[in-house]
Automatic annotation (TrEMBL):
Signal sequence extent: 1-23
Gene3D superfamilies referenced in this protein's UniProt entry, alphabetically: Periplasmic binding protein-like II
Single GO BP term: molybdate ion transport
Keywords carried by this UniProt record: Metal-binding, Signal
SUPFAM superfamilies noted in UniProt: Periplasmic binding protein-like II
Membership in a protein family: Belongs to the bacterial solute-binding protein ModA family.
Protein origin, superkingdom: Bacteria
Name recorded for this polypeptide: Molybdenum ABC transporter substrate-binding protein
InterPro entries for the chain: ModA (IPR005950), ModA/WtpA (IPR050682)
Organism lineage string: Bacteria, Pseudomonadati, Chlorobiota, Chlorobiia, Chlorobiales
Pfam families, alphabetized: SBP_bac_11 (PF13531)
Amino acid sequence: MNQKKTIIFLLFLLAAIPGLLQAETLTVAAGAGYKRPLMEIAALYEKKTGHHIDAVFGNMQQIFSQTETSGKVSVVFGEKSFLNRSTLSFSSFHPVGKGTLVLAWRKGLELKRLEDIRKKEVRRLGIPDPEKAIYGHAAAEYLKKSGLSKKTEQKLITLSTVPQVSAYLVSGEIDAGFINITDAIGIREKNGGMLPVPRDHYSPIDIQAAVVNGFEKKKEVTDFLRFLKQRESLAVLKHYGI
């Protein structure tokens, strides 16, 4: 009889294991321009805690859509104003850092000033989609405020995300492009250089970790948010200019 009870208990335990493991998995979503630092932080978190993080990246419209339809995303990383404009409900916001817009260019090209994008050597100028990516929106603001919109509109190529602009730079398909400093640091060995865009030429980029409503009491969420404030995470964010 005791043996039978033991077997039943073991079977119950085995059936419960997948659920327990799933509870330890956290799903986060973020703008594609933050992929490098978040993947490094996720790796550090998993190594330290043994808990896995699933990460989803894309432009913010893709992120909002996937978060809404999947029902699995607990935390969304993005710019505060973009997050506020979404139809998603968030229980809390946690500051991560400030975003910086830069102009980067391909190897073999030398630009000394931002205004050099007017030069004939810059035939193709990449920009993330201003409607879907915060750095595309910031770049469009800069071009307008600097008076460069009309002078560059014929060479402007709109791409989906920051990493797509970076990929086109590395491959030489575009001559220069606007990306965030985070991605520019990630490809610095493969591009020709970068220049920061003056912050007074675009709206502040306030990067936040937003907790999706309904996930605020999950232990894996609070544990991860706590880890974001620890030395290891802060070092990664600093390295990537956040």
